[in-house]
Amino acid sequence: MPTDAAFSNTEVSIYFRALSALTGAQDIKHDSVYMTADHQLVLEPNHRSQVEPGNSVIYTHRLNNPGNTAFTDITFSSEDTAEGWTSVLYEDSNNNGELDADDEPVGTYSLDPNETMLIFAKVFAPANTPYNTTNLTNISAKGTTDAGSSVDVPVTAQDM
């Protein structure tokens, strides 16, 4: 069974055959495997940057599903730790890898195994923020997979 096979929630028959090249004697063994669900979401990377008061900085993040189960109802949220700082999350709507006018604020998504999506965090520093202020933007994603039973998988990334 390939290592990237999707979770099927069913038993799969496999056969092993041993064949002698010298005598032609052979034997076949029947077995079966039951693939277990591998629920994984990865949100990366963490970033670090500087921004002048009254301006903004954009961070790019990848949400990846390296597991073998599909995720639905994936939602994103962000929280800023410094007073007055705000962040807005956008999806890469046109898949060009850059935040532009065609990109929409994040919504609710589905992600199949081995699929990846890009999101952007646009972080605004207030005009009156003192220099050397440190803000942490905590970005979270949470998705649900239903592989026998519903499982919520949360992931986070942090921008400074």
Give a written overview of the molecule.
The protein has 160 residues and is an all-beta fold. Helix content is 0%, strand content 49%. A hairpin with a 3-residue loop joins β9 (137-146) and β10. The mean pLDDT is 88.
- The shape is elongated
User: What is the alpha-carbon Rg in Å?
Assistant: 23 Å
- Give the fraction of residues assigned to helices: under 10%
Give the rounded overall mean pLDDT: 88
How many individual helices? 0
- The count of β-strands is 10
- What are the segments in which pLDDT stays under 50 over at least 5 consecutive residues? none
Give a brief rundown of this model.
The protein is built from no helices and ten strands.
Any descriptors?
160 residues; 4-stranded antiparallel sheet; mainly beta
Layout of strands and helices, then pairs:
Blueprint: E1 11-19, E2 26-34, E3 42-44, E4 56-64, E5 71-80, E6 86-91, E7 109-111, E8 116-124, E9 137-146, E10 150-159
Antiparallel strand pairs: 1-2, 3-4, 4-8, 5-7, 5-9, 6-8, 9-10
